[in-house]
Amino acid sequence: MEKRYIKKDSLNGRVKKMAEAGLVYAPVKDGDNVLFQVLTPGMEPLTAYANSKNAPKNFFFPHTEKLMKYTRTEKGMAFSGELAEARDAVLFGVRPCDARSFVLLDMLFDQEKYRDPYYVARREKTTVICLACIHPPYTSCFCTSVDGGPTDAAGADILLTDLGERYLVEFLTPKGEKLEAHFAGEKAGDEADAQKQAITAQAEQEITSRIPAKEIKPILDANFEHPFWNTIHQKCLACGTCTYLCPTCHCFDISDEQKGDDGIRLRNWDSCMFPLFTLETSGHNPRPTQKERWRQRAMHKFKYYVDNFSAIACVGCGRCVMYCPVNIDIRKIVTDISKL
């Protein structure tokens, strides 16, 4: 694996050069928020920031996308696919928790039997450049409890680690190696590994939120009808903030929009927190209250995904903790489950 040093103050300019040569998504300041956006001339990519408000999964799994067009003709209905050719792109500045979410989404959208062509096409064409967290930004971060870490490289093609006056650049995949020209610099040796290990150990110590996320599956297996599920949902507004900001949530709805003889079929994000999500045509709803919906959310993250893919569907980014308007905390829920 190729490793190099680059000067810290040169990174911003290198990212802008990449944006001049092709499509680059990067974290930028947008009002009070940091959001991933297409980098255009005059925009400043952020190379030192806590984390973005929006999870960058949106670039592989958009809020809304067209799946199909159809038209009524004299000979019947005519259908055409809407799978646009994915463009080569760079997704710069992703934090390790968000990069790891791509690995978890790959398990679902890129299986041998079930393969989502829309997601896979974007994923294959995009090079992910990850910025390690040398100082985890929030007290709500808990990545080490869900098999992640502040310098974890899972899901990344290039990993940048801040060593003080310079960055260590690690080219992890063939896609990452194709961008070597943008990261010209001194080759790094064993001393870089030692320095990175020390930074990793310190960063992991700074993560103070530790929850028994990997220990609760046997408890969930045996407690589907436990009275505990009557206690966690009572404040929930069913607003969907937790699911829409989550890097790994992937529920969607498919709808048709028609005008005259022409129509389009759309895929839109949905949420298991919404009352309509499981409403059947008959009028029956198998999850009639927030009790069942919150049970589903917890079960999906820490039981069903483990059953299906041997991985917890949570990366410990803490967004749902930070932005829930009524302060429902998934960390407390997991800890309480561990005590059942």
Structural account:
It is a single chain. By secondary structure, the chain is of the alpha+beta class. The chain folds into two domains: 3-210, no CATH class; 214-338, no CATH class. It is built from ten helices and twelve strands. It has helices at residues 11-21, 96-109, 117-125, 174-177, 190-206, 217-222, 241-245, 290-309, 319-323, 330-338, and strands spanning 3-7, 23-30, 33-38, 64-73, 76-81, 89-94, 126-131, 158-162, 166-171, 186-187, 252-259, 262-269. The strands form two sheets. Strands 3-2-6-7-8-9-1-10 form an eight-stranded mixed sheet. Strands 5-4-12-11 form a four-stranded antiparallel sheet, with no helix packed on it. The longest helix has 20 residues, at 290-309.
